[in-house]
Each structure stands twice: as structure tokens, then as C-alpha cells.
Write a structure and sequence with these properties.
The protein is an alpha/beta fold and 306 residues long. It is built from 10 helices and 12 strands. It has a single domain, classed as 3-Layer(aba) Sandwich (Rossmann fold), CATH 3.40.50.880. Strands 1, 2, 3, 4, 5, 6, 7, 8, 9, 10, 11 and 12 form a 12-stranded mixed beta sheet that branches. The chain is globular. It is found in: Cytoplasm.
């Protein structure tokens, strides 16, 4: 079954060219089925690229998924046209009385700021608190994961001496977890962040389980025992060239940046990176949609704890 997105969303053409099954809202309305209601809170400045990446992995399962895109009302986006936000996005005020089967909260390039110094932090905390009652399962990604761990459990973040940047190897430490069904014992995933959360701090909460870690990149995946809250510190949804574009952007801006680790063949930025994380990225989101959302959410989404 397809991911249900607006007919004119720019991501649609890209996904159709890749063979991802997408469906217009008009066609979906004629099917006698309740689709999963999934919201995406897109905090990234490159919103169209992030939409495409997330819709790609969310559209890889047999489940019909109805997508609601959200942006922050308290923050003015400088990299996305207002017309795009007006046409395809809602704000929290638009949906605060609604219920969703799932929510994805993306990362944001603001890790070095204290949480309270982020201009939209009051709105962010309101959304995080709302999600515990109005969403059955929330997938928090990168800065979104750090923000949620801090808000819900008081887990702090630590600035790194050098950016964690590249494609790193990870090992599964909870093979029985439903989120990791079908995973190899070791798998690759991209990271791009200036801050870190510590495994010991997460374990000290007594309420969040570690699921996968990396010797080089640290914690990768954690979740509450009921999988109502999932935390991913990396970017398994990234495209082949996402890290390359980030690297070249920073080089052109004159910033100090090392080449992404374990990414370019022979560490040569002129060579095309090998995609070696997509399979597990698709599997992660498929497991989340199936086991953490579809298999557990009540038929009526206005009772998310049922």
C-alpha cells in the first residue's frame, strides 16, 4: 500500500521515479480502509529534501500511510519558500486537538545551542508534551531525539570536540526488540552532529532501553519498553549524497570540517559514496510502522493509549 501525499508535493515526482508507491489524497479517499495517520514535524532547513527522504522510507511498507507535514509557527524558515509551507504544511495550532498513530520529529542544525536558547523551544516542549497523549508512537531523530530525552527524562547533551560525521558501524545490543527484527548483528548508518548523549545517562533513567550502539559514534537507538517513544541519533533516511553535500557546503563556507568518515571510497571526495545503509534504514521504519504503530495503535486514534 502507498504513502498518501498531496498531488503537487515536490517529493511526489522523485518518489514515483524511484518506484515508491504513492497515492493522491483523492484516490485514497475512495478506499475502504483506515490509513495510519502519521505526522512529520520537519525542523530541517532543507525541508523538501527531508520530506523526500522520510516519505521514501515511510512508503516502503504494505501499510497505507496518511501524512501530515508540520512546521514551527514560532520560527521563520529562511530556506523554504513561504508558498511551500502554506501549500503543504500545518502548524501545531492546526492539529493540537487531533490524534495521530505516529509522529516523526526530525533533527535540526542547532545542537550547539542550549535547548532553552532555541527560539522555538517553548513550542517544542508543548509539542513533546502533547505527543505523549495524542500520538501512539513517536520517532525522534538526531536533535529531535536529544530534545525529547532532555524534556521527558532530563538526559543532557554534550558538545563533542569534533563533529561526529560519516557512516559508522553499529552493533545490536537488544536483538529481541521488535524495532530490530530482521537486523543484522552489525549495520551501518550515517551521523552528522556536534553533540552527543551518553549511554550511562540514558540507562540511569530506568525508563529507556538502549537498543544499538557504535564504538565510534556512541548511542544510536533507544526506546521506552512499550516503544511509544523511539530515539535515533543518526540519519538512516539520508540519501547517498547528503553527507557529501553537507561537507562541500561547509568547505565552500570556509568552515573547519573534516571529511566524513568511512564514506568516500579511499577517502576521496571526488568519488561517489557507496550506499550501504539504505536496507537497514528501510527496515527500521518498516518495523516502527508495523510493530510499534500498526500492531499496537487502537482502531480509533483518539484513544492512543488504548
Amino acid at each position: 500500500m502507498p504513502v498518501n501525499i498531496p498531488r503537487d508535493l515536490p517529493a511526489r515526482a522523485t518518489l514515483e521515479d524511484e518506484g515508491i508507491f504513492v497515492m493522491s489524497q483523492e484516490r485514497a479517499s475512495h478506499q475502504d480502509i483506515r490509513p495510519l495517520r502519521i505526522a512529520i514535524l520537519n525542523l530541517m532547513p532543507t525541508k523538501i529534501a527531508t520530506e523526500t527522504q522520510l516519505l521514501r522510507v515511510l512508503g516502503s511498507t504494505p501499510l497505507q500511510v496518511e501524512i501530515t507535514l508540520l512546521h514551527m509557527a514560532s520560527h521563520e524558515s529562511r530556506n523554504t519558500a513561504p508558498e511551500h509551507l502554506e501549500a503543504f504544511y500545518a502548524t501545531f495550532d492546526d492539529v493540537r486537538d487531533e490524534y495521530f498513530d505516529g509522529l516523526v520529529i526530525t533533527g535540526a542544525p542547532i545542537e550547539k545551542l542550549d535547548f532553552e536558547d532555541v527560539d522555538y523551544w517553548p513550542e517544542m516542549t508543548e509539542i513533546l508534551d502533547w505527543s505523549t497523549e495524542h500520538v501512539h508512537s513517536t520517532m525522534h531523530v538526531c536533535w529531535g531525539a536529544q530534545a525529547a530525552l532532555y524534556r521527558h527524562y532530563g538526559v543532557g547533551k554534550y558538545e563533542l570536540p569534533a563533529k561526529t560525521f560519516g557512516v559508522f558501524n553499529h552493533r545490536v545490543i537488544a536483538p529481541e526488540a521488535i524495532l530490530l527484527r530482521g537486523f543484522d548483528e552489525e549495520f551501518a548508518a550515517p551521523h552528522s552532529r556536534h553533540t552527543d548523549v551518553h549511554a550511562a545517562d540514558i540507562e540511569a533513567t530506568g525508563k529507556v532501553d538502549l537498543l544499538a550502539v557504535s564504538e565510534e559514534a556512541g548511542v544510536f537507538m533507544a526506546a521506552t519498553p512499550d516503544f511509544r517513544q523511539v530515539f535515533i541519533t543518526g540519519h538512516p533516511e539520508y540519501d547517498r549524497d547528503t553527507l557529501a553535500r553537507e561537507y562541500r557546503r561547509d568547505v565552500e563556507a570556509g568552515l573547519e570540517i573534516e571529511k566524513p568518515q568511512h564514506y568516500f571510497p579511499d577517502d576521496d571526495p571526488e568519488r561517489e559514496p557507496v550506499m550501504r545503509w539504505r536496507g537497514h534504514g528501510f527496515l527500521l521504519y518498516a518495523n516502527w510502522l508495523n510493530y510499534c504503530v500498526y500492531q499496537q495503535t487502537p482502531f480509533q486514534p483518539d484513544t492512543p493509549g488504548g
